[in-house]
Structures are given as C-alpha cells and as structure tokens.
C-alpha cells in the first residue's frame, strides 16, 4: 500500500516536471497555423520540422555569440582561477586570507548594485555592445567562485609535493606546470561546467551590455517570446536550441554538474 | 623570495579587478544613488552629466513619493514571491527527497528528471511557462483531455490582489513581525538557558512591540491610503520558479537524508517511534542546517529575480513587477540612473541581511573546528 502511494507520488511529480517539456516539443513541431489554444496538447499531424529550420536560421548568429562567449569566458576564468587558487593555497602571504575573504564577497552581491557603474565603465572603455565586453565582465565576476573552487581543491594537495619540487630547483611556474597542473583535471572539469552553464544561461549582463549583433541567445529568446505577434512554434524551437548545450552538459556530466552546484550555489 | 613576489604579482590583477568591479562600483553606485542623475533631461544626453548631491532624496521618494507607487508594489511582490518560492521549493524538494530515499525502482532516472530544470536558463523556463500559462490554453485546458471542464484561472494576466493592506501600515507590520520574531528567539534562548541572548532579544522585542502599538499605528508614510497586496499574477511565476529550483533542494535534502547514520534511525525504531514521529523528531531536526543553507541560496535567487519575470511578463507589466525589474526599467529605459542606483543599493542591503548572518555563523563553525 505504502509502495503504491510512493510510486503514485513519483509519477505525479514526473508529470509535473516533464509535461512542460512535452508541450514545448509538441508546439515546436506544429505548423504555425495549427497552433490553437484549445488543441495545444494534441500531437502535431503532420509533424512540421520547418520550425527548427526557421528558428535555427533566426537564432544562429546569437547561438554562435553564446558559444564564443561561454567558451572563451569559461577558458579564461578557469585559467585565472587555477592561478589564483594555486597562489592562495600554496604561496600564502601575510593578509592573503583577508584578501581572499574580501574577494569572496563579490560572489554574494546582487549584480543590480553594480550594474549602472558597470554599464558606464564598459561604455567608457569602448567595449559596450561587443562580445569582448561581456566576456571581460563574466571573467571578472567569475573570479570569486573559480578561485574558491581551485583553492579548496589545491589545499588537498600535500605541501610536501610542492616543497620537494622546490628543493629540486623548480620555481613558481615550474611547480605549477609540472606538479599542480597534472593533478588539476577534476577541478578544471567542475569549474568549466559551472562557468559554462552560468555564462550560457546568464541574462542580466547580456541584456544590459550588448547590442543586437552581439546578443547571446538568452537575450534573443526573451525578446522573441516577448513579442505578442509571434507564433509560438518559434519561441519553443528557440527555447530548445537555447537549452540544448547546458542540457547535454547536465546529461553527460551530471555528476560534476552537481558537485559544482553544491560548491558554488550562493553565487550571484 | 623571488617566487613569493611572482606569486603576489599573479594574484594582483584579480585583486585589482575585484577591487574595481565590486568595491569600486558599489561605492560609485552609492554615490550615484545620492545624486539627482535623471531628474534633468539634459543629463541623460550629456556624455559627462553634471550631478548634484541630493542626500537620501531618491530613497525617500521610492518609499513615500507620489510617482513611485510601482516601486512599492514591486517590494510587496518581492516579499510574497520570496516567501512562496522558498516555501514551495523547500516543501516539494523535501517530499521528493523523502520519496527517493525509500529507494524506489529507477531512482537515478527520477533524480535526473527532477533536477534537469536546474540546467536551464531562467529565460528558457520563463518562455516555456509563459506558454503553459496561457489563459485559454496550456495547463488550463489539461483537464479537457480527460473530459473535464477547463480551469479558468487567468494566471499571468490577472490583475487581482489579495491580502491588501495600506502602505501606511508598513511600519506597524514591520515592527510587529520583527518584534514577534525576536520574541520567538527569546523563547528559544529561554529554553536553551542562554541568559544574555534572552535578555537582549526580549528587550529589543519589547521596545519594538511597544513602539508598534503606540507610535507605529499613527506613523504615516503617505498623506493618503495606498493599497498594496499579493498580486495573483505572481502565482504563475512562483510555479515556474519552483519547477526550476525544487530539484536543487531535493538534491541537498537527499544528500542529507543519506548522511543520517543508520544507528540513529535504528535507535528511534527501538524506542518505538512511529514513522511520522521519526521524521518529526529525528530526521527533520537533523536536516535543519540543510534547510538553512537552502533558504539562503533560494532567498538570494529570489531577491534578485529578474530574467524569469522578464521572460514571462516583460518589463512593463506592473502586476509581476519586482525591484530588479523596476530598477532596470528606470535606469536603462527611463535614464533615471540615480533612482535605479538607489534600488540597487537597497537590494544589496537586503541580500546582506540574508547572507551576512549566515556567513558569520559558518565562520564561527570553522573556528570552533
């Protein structure tokens, strides 16, 4: 009896989580003229693949922007994070803990509280409306969380390893290159997944700092869905396109995804 | 020695960047919020606008000014959104975790299903749910598939409000709520025998409650009554947000449940505790720290919610307005930078109110270890 209720509840919950997905796919596969409100749940007949083609043509430049943005910002911030974490974990100096704490504060602020000066600054240095401006912003505001993840990870590496390499005559970068980096793969994976999903999904900076030609896909999608005249097959196909990269990451690297989630869940 | 200098130099760019982008910008934002930037149309067009210091005028206008009634409704919306979003995500997350903890078949699959919305952008979620919540379609016609009459709740399009109160009563309600919370803290302190905490919480609670019922009742923010309430259009937004985030609380709770030692549960069983009693008196108290961290994370998300509402209802729809939306609208559509900056500072204070006590308690724990 208890078992019955357990499965009934899980089934109900599954419906709650998956029905929206079902409706999205359904709508994306419908001919625009056949999308009417009272038949929304009816399976398309015939299946209309054109929506994806049209949506892909419309969203491709934005999708490419998102790819360039997320990949380059992720790569840069992973590099910065690894170096920062290495310094803080293995080369602490007087006051470095305090500086680290001050750095972490940046993780908790709501970005609305810096948005106006940020907008002015990005404009002043001539990067407003460019993808580079957005990349810069993501790398900078990613510093606290990536530094935290790398520092925690490097603290687990025994100091003796670093000490031994130093006695062998290796310098700061030599130790990093030959001792630390070869051990860093797991931390890089966590950071890369975390930053990639965050940056891909981000909206506030993107909508504030880009022009149409440099928009990532989230901004384009929000604006498309906001227009009333548009038939719903396009926003739905667009939503699938916008969701696909992070969903694939989640499905194939779910374990690391969760780890990043638990590590950095308070990030602003 | 050379290496130590190199190490510092490697860290330096990040320090400078965070110094400017976090501390510098907060400082500048604070300054902007104390100026008249946006009052004069000429400032909007000027490359280097001439700004004048006006003190706390922008803040005063937001809370008591005639034109900013929309800000006040956005604050009320934010409070209700935060409460229901947190409650919903915690409740559903806990239920899901408890169900999965019983080891049903296909547990891994269920977990994947419940958690996948976490991987989506709030913009994607918003777009999907905007379609699901069409008044004449989506969820509302779902019952007709089983031959039942459709639902008629207009979701995002409703302008209805419940629990309406007069904005002038805000000081009274705030003092009452904080006072009662402190009273509860005092009661807890009394139970735990912490004399000092008991004294201070009792004293401040007393002061607040006395103030609330004497001066608080007659303190008026506005010269006229201004009704605000829980905007029912938010129900749909809350639903979408819970859909997205309850998998996250489920993951936290599930990890917590799995971490409870079997001996503890055995002991409860030996003591003759029923299943319900075990949950109530053994498991839930052990999960309290998880609830607290989840509340911090969810509260943090809720207070700065922007993209979800942007995608579901747009910038110009007052019934689902929140401060982050209004701030964007003022600053980047209306060139009212000073007032927008003031809202940014208020959000920062609000988040600090949530996060700083948490960080301090975490830090204390670290030290005790």
UniProtKB/TrEMBL annotation, chain A:
Keyword Ribonucleoprotein: no
Organism placement in taxonomy: Bacteria, Thermotogati, Deinococcota, Deinococci, Thermales
Top-level lineage group: Bacteria
SUPFAM superfamilies: MetI-like (SSF161098)
Subcellular location(s) per record: Cell membrane; Membrane
Occurrences of domain ABC transmembrane type-1 (ranges): 63-253
Key words, A-Z: Membrane, Transmembrane, Transmembrane helix, Transport
Record field: transmembrane: 67-86, 98-119, 125-150, 171-194, 236-258
Entry membrane topology: Multi-pass membrane protein
Official protein name in the record: Carbohydrate ABC transporter permease
UniProt GO cellular component terms: plasma membrane
Entry's family note: Belongs to the binding-protein-dependent transport system permease family.
Example GO biological process: transmembrane transport
From TrEMBL, chain B:
Keyword Mitochondrion among record annotations: no
Membrane topology field: Multi-pass membrane protein
Residue stretches spanning the membrane: 5-26, 78-100, 112-132, 170-187, 199-218, 230-255, 282-303, 341-360
SUPFAM superfamilies referenced in this protein's UniProt entry, alphabetically: MetI-like
Pfam annotation, one family: BPD_transp_1
Keywords: Cell membrane, Membrane, Transmembrane, Transmembrane helix, Transport
Localization, UniProt: Cell membrane
Entry GO CC: plasma membrane
Keyword Lyase: no
InterPro entries from the UniProt entry: ABC_transporter_permease, MetI-like, MetI-like_sf
Main location: membrane
PROSITE patterns linked: ABC_TM1 (PS50928)
Single biological process term from Gene Ontology: transmembrane transport
Superkingdom: Bacteria
Occurrences of domain ABC transmembrane type-1 (ranges): 75-358
Similarity annotation: Belongs to the binding-protein-dependent transport system permease family.
The protein, known as: Sugar ABC transporter permease
Lineage of origin: Bacteria, Thermotogati, Deinococcota, Deinococci, Thermales
């Amino acid at each position: 009896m208890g078992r019955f209720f357990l499965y009934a509840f899980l089934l109900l919950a599954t419906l709650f989580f998956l029905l929206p997905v079902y409706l999205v796919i359904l709508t994306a596969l419908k001919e625009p003229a056949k999308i009417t409100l009272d038949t929304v749940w009816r399976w398309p007949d015939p299946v209309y693949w054109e929506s994806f083609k049209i949506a892909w043509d419309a969203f491709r430049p934005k999708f490419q922007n998102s790819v360039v943005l997320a990949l380059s910002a992720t790569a840069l911030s992973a590099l910065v994070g690894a170096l920062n974490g290495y310094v803080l974990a293995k080369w602490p100096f007087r006051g470095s803990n305090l500086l680290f704490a001050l750095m972490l504060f940046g993780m908790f602020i709501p970005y609305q509280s810096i948005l106006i000066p940020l907008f002015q600054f990005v404009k002043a240095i001539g990067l407003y409306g460019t993808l580079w401006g957005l990349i810069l912003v993501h790398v900078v505001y990613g510093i606290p969380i990536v530094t935290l993840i790398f520092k925690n990870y490097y603290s687990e590496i025994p100091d003796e390893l670093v000490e031994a390499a130093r006695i062998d005559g290796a310098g700061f970068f030599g130790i990093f290159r030959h001792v630390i980096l070869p051990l860093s793969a797991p931390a890089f994976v966590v950071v890369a997944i975390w930053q990639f999903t965050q940056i891909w999904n981000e909206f506030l900076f993107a909508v504030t700092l880009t022009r149409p030609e440099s928009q990532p896909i989230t901004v384009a999608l929000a604006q498309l869905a906001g227009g009333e005249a548009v038939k719903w097959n396009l926003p739905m196909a667009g939503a699938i396109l916008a969701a696909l990269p992070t969903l694939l990451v989640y499905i194939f690297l779910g374990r690391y995804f969760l780890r990043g989630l638990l590590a950095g869940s308070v990030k602003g | 020695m050379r290496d130590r200098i190199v190490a510092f130099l490697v860290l330096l760019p990040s320090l400078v960047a965070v110094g400017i982008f976090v501390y510098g910008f907060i400082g500048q934002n604070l300054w902007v919020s104390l100026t008249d930037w946006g009052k004069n149309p000429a400032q909007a067009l000027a490359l280097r606008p001439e700004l004048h210091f006006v003190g706390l005028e922008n803040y005063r206008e937001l809370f008591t000014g005639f034109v900013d009634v929309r800000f006040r409704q956005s604050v009320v919306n934010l409070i209700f959104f935060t409460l229901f979003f947190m409650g919903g995500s915690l409740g559903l997350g806990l239920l899901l975790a408890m169900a999965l903890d019983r080891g049903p078949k296909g547990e891994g699959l269920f977990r994947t299903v419940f958690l996948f919305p976490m991987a989506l952008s709030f913009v994607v979620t918003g777009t999907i749910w905007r379609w699901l919540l069409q008044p004449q379609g989506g969820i509302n016609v779902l019952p007709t598939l089983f031959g039942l009459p459709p639902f008629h709740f207009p979701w995002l399009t409703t302008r209805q409000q419940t629990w309406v109160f007069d904005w002038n009563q805000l000081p009274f309600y705030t003092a009452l709520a904080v006072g009662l919370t402190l009273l509860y803290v005092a009661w807890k302190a009394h139970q735990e025998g912490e004399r000092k905490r008991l004294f201070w919480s009792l004293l401040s609670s007393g002061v607040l409650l006395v103030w609330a019922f004497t001066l608080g009742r007659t303190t008026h923010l506005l010269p006229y009554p201004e009704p605000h309430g829980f905007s029912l259009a938010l129900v749909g937004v809350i639903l979408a947000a819970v859909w997205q985030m309850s998998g996250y609380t489920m993951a936290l709770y599930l990890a917590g449940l799995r971490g409870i030692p079997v001996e503890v549960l055995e002991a409860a069983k030996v003591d003759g505790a029923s299943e319900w009693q075990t949950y109530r008196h053994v498991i839930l108290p052990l999960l309290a720290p998880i609830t607290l961290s989840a509340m911090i994370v969810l509260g943090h998300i809720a207070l700065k919610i922007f993209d979800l509402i942007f995608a579901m209802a747009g910038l110009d729809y007052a019934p689902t307005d929140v401060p982050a939306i209004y701030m964007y609208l003022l600053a980047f559509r209306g060139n009212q930078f000073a007032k927008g900056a003031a809202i940014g500072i208020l959000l920062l204070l609000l988040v600090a109110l949530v996060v700083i006590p948490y960080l301090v308690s975490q830090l204390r724990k670290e030290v005790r270890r």
